[in-house]
Amino acid sequence: QIKLSNERKEKMSVNYFESKESKERAVFILESYDCPDLLKEQSDAFALDEFIDNYNWDDGLETPYFILNHRNCELGTALKIFYLGEGIAMVQVDYTNHKLGHWVEFIEYTFKRIVEGNYKSKYIAFKFPLMERSKQRIKEAGWPKVFIEDIVV
For residues 16 and 105, is the Cβ–Cβ distance under 8 A? Predict the structure, then answer.
């Protein structure tokens, strides 16, 4: 299982994604997708999941971060975000050497929230998106089963 260093945990507590800049960027992106109200409380799990299905990851990690923290984000959507955001790279020993802005922080945050059980499964299904070899690497890394089991609702 992934062990985060104390230094990395401290960095995560002073999170870029909670900054004013990150929030403004997420609002800008939502407006460009013509869905500025997506992160309001009344948005349902389907709207959040559909947005991620159509999201261009070149637009950054800020909007997926806020979707992960929406009260109606379900486990299926959180796992989708993890895998579409290339979270599988965490099974690589040197994934923290990636120089992709706040990517490491985002992936570790997403992983941690999923492991802690912050998401429920009610409406959103999820099918493990990778080949059997990747599933084996995840098992060998000691990740919880939630990362390799399909969600059927």
Answer: yes
Listed in sequence order, the DSSP H helices in the chain are: 6-13, 20-32, 45-53, 62-68, 75-84, 103-115, 132-140
Residue 54 near residue 27 (C-beta atoms within 8 A): no
Q: Compute the radius of gyration of the chain from its Cα atoms.
A: 15
CA dihedral 2, 114, 16, 25 (to 10 degrees): 140
CA distance 95 to 152: 30
pTM for the predicted model, two decimal places: 0.87
For residues 52 and 68, is the Cβ–Cβ distance under 8 A?
Answer: no
Identify the bridge partners of residue 9 per DSSP, sorted by sequence position.
none
Confidence at residue 113, expressed as pLDDT on a 0 to 100 scale: 97
Close Cβ partners of 66 (under 8 Å, ≥ 6 residues apart)? 17, 23, 26, 39
Whether residue 66 contacts residue 109, with contact meaning beta carbons closer than 8 Å, is answered with: no
Which range has the worst mean pLDDT, 50-59, 92-101, 133-142? 92-101
Tokens for 107, please give them: 């992936």
DSSP SS3 for 117: coil
